[in-house]
């Protein structure tokens, strides 16, 4: 009599255990078993590896290495700009980035957190508002305030009218009625810039260059006559602004502001 055939044994794969991440949708009963079980979640019967779907191949082709954060954020930005925040789904973002939906959830949690990352990326370049805040801070010691205000204004206008930044700003304004946190997230760095500008104005007043009873109000008024004027004239970035016109907006705004606040007691 032939010896009985040994039953196959499923062996655990110690390299990977599947776990749920915060923000993931509730799994089905079958998925719960797969995810709770320490056996590798995508192992087939008899411990064989099934064919990997296309999206998982893209994410797992170099298993063990983290996905490129910037690649996913940039893909999300493109999808959000095409479809808006409400109309964009995680499936579409994952496909655009070439990663699996599970991978996206594991790294970013949910769509809201991913959009926050898109906003931070848009505001973290070399010309972002934190850099502008540092530039504004240097105005306090300027010996030619008009010149340095015009330089700051030109740089600032160029930054806010960059195509992607302008498109993202319009999207956030359009979606802010349903999602107020979008506008709060977008404007947070602007408060830092406004504070730095107000502090520089105070230092110039202490030097006797300016006569400013309310530095915070003066800072907001400068932003209004330079930055908001540029945004309004271009329909918030829908129309290209020639360099000469941008310079005119900045020069006129700075000159008017200085006429209001220059210390006249100095003659």
TrEMBL record:
Residues 66-126 form the HTH tetR-type domain. One of its GO terms (biological process) is negative regulation of DNA-templated transcription. Signal peptide: none annotated. It comes from the Bacteria. Gene3D superfamilies: Tetracycline Repressor, domain 2. Keywords: DNA-binding, Transcription, Transcription regulation. Pfam families: TetR_C_7, TetR_N. One of its GO terms (molecular function) is transcription cis-regulatory region binding. Residues 89-108 bind DNA. This is TetR family transcriptional regulator. The lineage of its organism: Bacteria, Bacillati, Actinomycetota, Actinomycetes, Streptosporangiales.
